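We give the entry.
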Amino acid sequence: MFASLSSRISDIFEKLRKSGILKESNVDEALREIRIALLEADVSLDVARKFIAEVREKAIGQNVIKSISPGQMVTKIVHDHLVELLGKSRPIEINKKPYKIMLIGLQGAGKTTTVGKLAKIFSKKNKKIVTASADIHRPAALEQLRVLSKKINGTTFIPSEAETDLSCAQICKLALKAIENEGADVLIMDTAGRLHIDQVKMSELQEIHKIINSDEIILVVDIMTGQDALNIANKFSEALPISGIILTRVDGDARGGVALSMRAITGCEIKFLCTGEQLDDIEFFDAERIASKLLGMGDIVSLVEKAKENFSKEEAEETAKKLQEGIFTFDDWAAQMEKMSKLGGLKTILEMLPQSKQLQGLMDAHGISDKTVVKNIAIVKSMTNKEKRNYKLLNGSRRKRIAAGSGTTIQEVNKLIKQYESALDLFKKIRKNGMGKMMTMIGR
């Protein structure tokens, strides 16, 4: 999400930061470009106009124009306004037992999968969960949620396979009985979607809300619907007291302007972003981090959090020890590449780093991508244990054998060995600068 918008805005501010003296005309030109970029990214026209007007008012002030670093000052003003526009979101707090959450939205928005993702989040907090499906119009929805629920510890699914042909009201009452019998902390209720909004659907949702007495009503919206997402949100909020919004398929949309407009137009908090189909592909919506990514400042906090999920303290300390001692074999190299893949791959990591566009340019120039990482892992796995420990054994005939075994070319094998040698040189510099300790920070 925001890939093209972030790239455009980063370029605009790079020009501003390079300007020694900032004039009003420079600010106006930059804001014109930002306005165009926002509109092309599906940001509402009214939201874009208001945003630009407010930024301009502060950006042309004398304190900014005459500041030591005017470009950076304007960047900060835009950053702060983006945070305000996106709105700060509160996490879902389970402050009573049972806590009842109801998910609503159009058909195909991703409600059922999102129920599973929320259940997984609460399961990690050792909560007992009941998931229920009131989608009696789509039998596949019941089976889908049943399968997802079985994958999550401490989760009970309603209705059971023996309970068929039930009405929405009956399923709701079964769910309420289940949370009482199970002593559950949370009920997450899936509901039926339609291809469009109609009174029948709204009446059904209102009935479900009345029966279970929801503590949260969360609207699930597919960000790929663009400006229509805003109309959908408004229509639902007219019928039900929506407490938050979850945006899905954000991994498939390079524009993402809907997220910038959603809070301003609906007044509802965006709670989470769904970034893929797996149960763990969901992240809390943090305005500060998104604003930083949009302005090319990266998102180091999220990167560290992802690293903590995939690197144990012991692994981090072991890696740091090897770097400090200058012992780093091809096995270690491959292990790090595999862990990088678990973090989402090179593209995801780069997006979280400051100046990501420039870093991506360097990677492209050296022909490094997620595809090359997969090939490199295959090459390492085709080496013998001795070769992995001592790369100097890799003569011409060995390289030819490794290329054949990994389905790559000798040129690709040679390139990997050169990259490995460069990495060893880099690790020597790291040792000299005393930065080996940084690796242990991941595990803390």
